[in-house]
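Today's session is about reading a structure prediction critically. Students often jump straight to the picture, but the first step is always the sequence itself: look for stretches that repeat, for charged clusters, for runs of hydrophobic residues. Only then move on to the predicted structure, which in these notes is written as discrete structure tokens rather than atom positions. Here is the chain we will use throughout the hour.
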Amino acid sequence: MKIIIVGLGKVGYAIAQQMVGEEHDLILVDESAAVIEHADATLDAMCVEGNGACASVLLRAGVRDADLVIAATADDEVNLVCSLMAKKLGAKHTVARVRNPEYFRDAPILRREIGLDMIINPEYAAAQEIARILRVPAAFSVESFARGTVELIGFQITEQDGMAGKSLIEYNKLHPNALLLCAAKRGGEVLVPNGHFVPQAGDRVYAIGTPTETARVLRSMGRDTSPIRQLSVIGGGRIALYLAWALDGMGMHITIVEQNEEKCMAIAEKLPKATILHGDGTDHDLLESEGIFDADAFVSLTGRDEENLLMALTAKDSGVAKVLPKMSRPNYTALVHDLGIDTVISPKDVTASQISSYVRGLANSQGSAVESLHKILGGAMEAVEFTATGATHFLNTPLKDLNFKPGLLVAAIVHGGKLLIPGGHSIISEGDRVIVVAKSLFLKDLNDILVR
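Below is the predicted structure for this chain, in token form.
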């Protein structure tokens, strides 16, 4: 596919990195000469310097025969104008980054009136991810599939789990369950487990099942699954606002600390149920006196990675059970895990995965298209959801009779709205939702899981 990305900030660049890896014809546009020079040196793509909202710049980038234009600048208005102009000039599909909550609420109107095909909002996506994790605090990652029927949870194996040191076959005999362990990372090695896999303390693993079953199994392993009642948030930006809205109705009291007084007043008006504190989120005395570290969970959402990491570590050291820092720089992730923080929130990475899912769906709109996609274990693996159609070549064939590509697992089948953990005699029928976990094979179609 021919894809034009306008705006190479953190989000635009992350999207470009992912698209380059998936072998698209990529054109990158930014009005900063320095940014274009950096992209030209680091990415296998054509680079165009200029304002992406200008028709002449889009024409230079080849918009007339573009399959997709992604407007990802830091300015909502520029992104909307760019998308409108691109559609008028012949682009088949357009995606715009829209951060302003007022514009975001008008998404259906924007799609209808200016022909937008998709709206991305990194702050909203990050808030949704945080909300999912806070619902299952014993997990470091929670991804949802098949409209919430299926949940993929990540957790770290401990000596106390009862799972460490036993093969999955042995563990499942002792503790019957309806979960499937479908991915694992041990040290630097990423694995697709089979029944003989023996989890060890320290392994980071992913299991798939229904939300009810994942919660039951975590409880049986001795993990604390108590709901979070008190949440402390440092930084009162858009993510904090979207997060408070997402958690409304869950019986959770939220305290937000924000340094900017004007922003505090605006947040207080929009979030009447929350406690808004005006102050420096790195002021330890202030946080202690206001009971910020007495919360069940702590989320640091300032604009600086260093502050977010420092405050998350302080909260953890003060006894907060669940801490989630927002991080933009990927080179910090390994350090954070080494320091004992199991969950990191990256708005740009969440958005890049959403775009990748959309692009793969476009690339294969006539086959068994990608419904959703989530990168896991630092991007080393991906979980991809497909809908089986009449174009799927192996309908109604037992899985044991199929020749799958290596490093891949059919992790779940949703048939008639019910989750089935697949076995050798399981079949895939037309209309089924199928979740596949694979070492990044860039799957675009359900048929791609077989050796040709």
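Discussion point for the tutorial: The radius of gyration is 23 Å.
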